[in-house]
What does this fold into?
Amino acid sequence: MENIIAEINKLKISKKAVILSHNYQLPEIQDIADFVGDSLELSRNAADTDANIIVFCGVNFMAETAKILSPKKTVLLPDLRSGCPLADMVTPDDIKKLREENPGAEVVCYINTSAEVKAECDICCTSSNAVDIVNSVNSDMVIFLPDRNLGNYVSKHTKKKMIIWNGYCPTHENLKIEDVLEMKKLYPNAKFVAHPECTEDVLKLADKITSTSGIIKYVKTDPSKDFIIGTETAILHRLKKESPEKNFIPASRKMYCPNMKYNNLESLYESLLNEEPEMEVPEKIRQKAYLTIKKMLDVSKIIVS
Ligand code: 13P
It folds into this structure.
């Protein structure tokens, strides 16, 4: 283990590479990464880095987003099996049909979509900026896809009429209301923090609804000691590391995303050594998808500042 970590670090320097990791990656991947974050932070990082190579430890739509934003850089995804079932739930044809059925509506896609889907949409969003992005569009009618729970959550914070696609994240929908009630009984003083991909009945029980990095920030400033965490369990690694004085309880051990666990130290090492598997996006698709993501980055910059 020590050896492989040293080898990865050597390769990283000699090849001027940067390792980006999502908050759901294995602990050892998070620990070796140059940056660990949520989808918005990772795409900002991928857009701004001056590294020659981006090794993206996350799932494929995330690495694809990095390639769309940094087309001249080599973007590696250590294990191509790292898919996203939610992203696979909507196709470009679905969007064409939705546009025909809802003339004048603008299409907002969650970042959990393929490059081909992004290319058909007007603007992208992540879980941390979805409300602001929907409120920023010109039309009063918004087609939101693919996550029904995030879409439903946003619809409660906007006056826009929303047409919501019926996709969902299997990992977040694994969390049931009974699981949360049981944990709340065991830890009556705990705050329950949930990701907006959880179902509406679960979200009703939440003290805070936010993105993965939003959860990490929230627990640092909230005075409570105990937190029930309603998102993928690998986030507990960073939570414990950055807030060791607090107590984190997974809302359910069933909140496990197998796709996020394909990347490991061995595949990361092989990937950096051989510079493969490399993410590729056909240029015509990339240019259109770029506009969709760039619009989001511009709007979220205005909102942050
Ligand atoms: P975040 O943007 O909150 O990290 O969410 C990404 C994701 O895929 C959640 O399932």
Observations:
- The first strand starts at residue 17 and ends at 22.
